[in-house]
Structure formats: C-alpha cells, structure tokens
Amino acid sequence: MPKSMTGYSRVQKIFEEKYRISCELRSLNSRHLILDLQIPPFLMPYEVDLVQIIKRKLTRGKVQLKVFVEFLYPVSGVKIDMGLARAYYNALDSLVGHLGIPEPVNLDNLLRFKELVRFELKEEESDKVWQGVREIVSKGLDDLNKERSVEGEKLVSDLKVIILSIHEIIQFFKTNLKAVQVELREKYFNNIKEFLPESTEVDESLLENIVAVALEKADVREELTRLESHIERVRDLFNSNGAVGQHLDFLAQEILREFNTILAKSRETSFIEQALQGKLLTSQFREQIQNLE
Q: Is the dihedral of CA 146, 147, 148, 152 positive or negative?
C-alpha cells in the first residue's frame, strides 16, 4: 500500500546509563527527498552516514530530523580556547576604558562569543554515541513509516472512491455511445438537408461520406479505451508497496488529457456534462495524490 508523505515520530532511549539519546522526525510533502538535519556539532563527522540511513528508508518528502544527546555523567569534552578568550577580554576591556563605560568586562560578555567554547569527544566515546544515535534514528524512521503507511491507507481509500466515480463516467460513455452516434447521424443529415434548397438534387453517397467524416471526428472510442487502461494501471499501483506518487501524477495528467479530448469532440449535452465531471474528479484525484510518496 502506498505511503503518505506526512508523518511524525519521536524516540528516546538511555544507553549504558551514560547517554539519553532522542530523535524527532517530521515529514511533509515534496517532489523530492529534502533533508533538514539538526544534530549536535560533535556528530557532524557522521552526517553522511546519517543521510544514507534516511535514504534507505525514505524516497520522497521534506524531512526534518532533530537529534538530542544528553550526558548522564560528567563528561570531559569541554574545551575552552583560553588564548582567544584572553584576546577578546583585552579588546573588550580596552573598549570599556576608551568609551568610559562604568561596568567592567564580565564572563557573560565573553560567553556571547560561541567560538570560545567547544565540545569534543574522544573518538572511542563519539563512536559509542554514534552507535546509539544510529539505533534511535533507525527506530524513529520505522515508526515514521508506520504512521505514513496508516495515513497512506486512508488516502488511498479516498482515492479509490474518486477512481470508481471516473470509471462510472467511462461506463456511461460506453453505454450511450451508440445511441448518441445514431442521434448525431440523424441530426447531421437533417441539418444538411435543411441548409440546402428544396430543388437541390442531393448525392446520397456524398452525403453519407460527409456525415461519416463528421461522426468520425466525434468518435471517442479510442479515448475511452485509453482511459480504461489508465484506470487499470492506477488500481495496480494502489496495491503496490513502492513510491508511486509521481507515477500516479503522470497517469492523472493522461486521464485529464483524455477527458479534454472527449470534451472537445462531444456534441451531445450529457456527454459534455460527463466529460466536465470527469475533469473535475481528475483534478481532485491529482490534488490528493500530491500527498503520496
């Protein structure tokens, strides 16, 4: 069953009583896979690996991932650039003296410069944290896909109703096509004879050919055959487990094209109304499939 592109998940776990790791995932509609990763700076070396984990489980959508790591013990990874701190302090102290500011330079002033303090873990420690992050993110992606599957099932159920209505319109055309052609044939004959003076001698063979050409231009059997083929393909995609959103969007365009052609060819009021209804349903169908992966 196709998945929706919208979903949310949050997962948290404590590892070795040392780290509390959590991740939050949100996904929205997008034509392509767009990733927004918000991870601690010390995990930046693993960003490429993180992207690959996500790509193995998601193919489309605008996905935001937030990873939080809380250390449950005093960790020795905080580094202060003392030389740079001294340089900032001296510069600020000089500025205070030069401008005659009554307040001295304090720690709060220095901490505004983010580059003074950084957090670095030993390679062994960061690898342990990364193993936990990888596990949590994988679990979060599984949960996200479960929610997207539930939403996708609801969406496909609504789409099937639309497709059924479109199929009923196709059956209406097929059921009434022959009667409409007979009616049009008689109408064309009468219109031509009314247009000609009564004294005009009519070549019945030529008249038959003219009417036949007119009826051929109004014939929509080929369009109906293609529509049935498109509808059958749509139903097949509803039963697949892959990413089918873009394929369904292409089929929706083709269905709309066929209804436009039928509308252009139609001369009978009920056919025109049904073609317009088919266009409306197809537009609704195409709008909703934008939510499918």
A: positive
C-alpha 106/C-alpha 3 separation (Å) is: 55
pLDDT tens per residue, range 213-267: 665 676 788 999 999 999 999 999 999 888 899 999 999 999 999 999 999 888 7
The enclosing domain of 201 has a CATH number of 1.20.140
**Residue bearing tokens 């809380």:** 70
CA nearest to 159, candidates 276, 259, 257, 238: 238
Q: Model confidence over 55-88: pLDDT tens digits? A: 999 999 999 999 999 998 887 778 888 999 999 9
SS3 10: strand
Same domain, 143 and 11: yes
CA distances from 102 to 85, 113, 181, 269 (A): 21, 22, 97, 88
Q: In terms of domains, do 106 and 206 share one?
A: no
**Quick check: pTM over 0.85?**
no
Q: How many CB atoms lie within 10 A of CB 159?
A: 20
Q: What amino acid occupies position 40?
A: P
φ, ψ dihedrals at 37, nearest 5°: -100, 125
Lowest mean pLDDT among 45-49, 181-185, 258-262: 181-185
Rounded CA separation 122/72 (Å): 17
Domain that holds residue 99: 78-115
How many Å is the Cα radius of gyration of the chain?
A: 34
- The structure tokens 């991932």 sit at 65
Q: Give CA–CA dist 28/173, Å, rounded.
A: 39
Mean pLDDT across the stretch 95-105? Answer: 89
What's the rounded Cα separation, in Å, for the pair 137 and 143?
10
